[in-house]
Amino acid sequence: MAAEEGGPAMRRSTVVPPRRRPEGIRWLRSDGKPNFSDRIHRHEGEAKLLAKRPVYTTTRTSTILRLLEDMTRYNVRAMPVIVPNKETLEGMVTVMDAVSYLGGGELYDIVVKRHGRNIYAALLKEYVSSIMNPNPVYVTVDDKLTKILEVMVTRNVGVLPVLYHDGTIWGIITEHDIVGYLAEKTVGRRVSEVMTTNVITISVDATLKEAMETMIKYGVRRLPIVADNSVWGMITAKDIVRFFGSHEVFTFVETGNVEEALATPVKIVGVNDYVTISPDADVGEAAKLMIDKGVSSLLVVEEGKLTGIITERDILYALAIAPS
Asked: Where is this region: Disordered (predicted)?
């Protein structure tokens, strides 16, 4: 474990990065509970039936590189941390934790102070225990859809392990899963009503480190890449994990200093591709487009101009509170 093999584990700060869209609070009643529509109650079901399996997990003694490799292999943005041979939950680690550690946030201090910015030491001699959340949010197998959504909305999480009452893992539920479960052709709410208009972007000339720092600063997992006032492509936290987990990063390192990797142009890590939708489209159409294209966000474009972004979470909120 990191505390034994790499010195005392550095504590995670309690500082919380700014949230991308605090508007979600407006969907809470005065008692702090979400005001769910009849649609949610019609689709009510237990977590055990809604959860997906198998669950791809990691352990606190897995190396950071192994974690990134596994996230890349299984194409996931979060992994439960389990006790080996027991399958009991003891933590959660996300792509944003990885982005923070790799150069975007406060966890990068571990790389700097403990490993002297050596990328090989940082990936091979540090452990999941140093970056995981030891107090993960979860639901149990018999929790209903309303409880699942309430936890996601009030705790601001998009991935939930589903546990038996003895703490062992049964499955996992994501925003994407619920959007697919609730999606309807017509919701009666337009994309422009739920999208985020203050889109955080990154220049095509920026470095990977600048993109990572922007993600952590604003609490976003995806950034449109812009060139000459138009969208060139997208970079996501999963793209960054894939860059490291696929070992492509090592082609940009000569001396072993991680800063060489962080100087990689953002357009090399991101993709020259994105999916758009009109602000006048129905939220149901946006949900279907996300599912069909296998994406977690859509850029909202009107007359060729970027006017907003809509994510799975935005659609989830809209489906949850829109009139049935």
From this structure: 1-21
Chain segment 152-194, per-residue pLDDT in tens: 888 889 999 999 999 999 999 999 988 888 787 788 889 999 9
The kind and range of the H/E element at 106 are: none
Q: Is the dihedral of CA 141, 144, 147, 148 positive or negative?
A: positive
Q: How many CA atoms lie within 13 A of 256 on its CB side?
A: 9
Residue ranges and CATH numbers for the domains of the chain are: 17-174 (3.10.580.10), 191-321 (3.10.580.10)
**Residue 302: partners with Cβ closer than 8 Å, 6 or more residues away:** 278, 279
Q: Are 130 and 9 in contact (CB under 8 A)?
A: yes
**Overall residue count recorded for the chain in this entry:** 324
Q: Are strands 88-94 and 78-83 parallel, antiparallel or unpaired?
A: antiparallel
Record the tokens describing residue 7, joined without a space. 């010195």
Task: State how far the Cα of 8 lies from the Cα of 108, in Å rounded to an integer.
Answer: 15
Q: What is the pLDDT of residues 34-69, one digit of tens each?
A: 666 666 656 666 888 889 999 999 999 999 999 999
Please return the burial class of 40, using the count of CB atoms within 10 Å of its CB with bins 0-12, 13-18 and 19+: buried
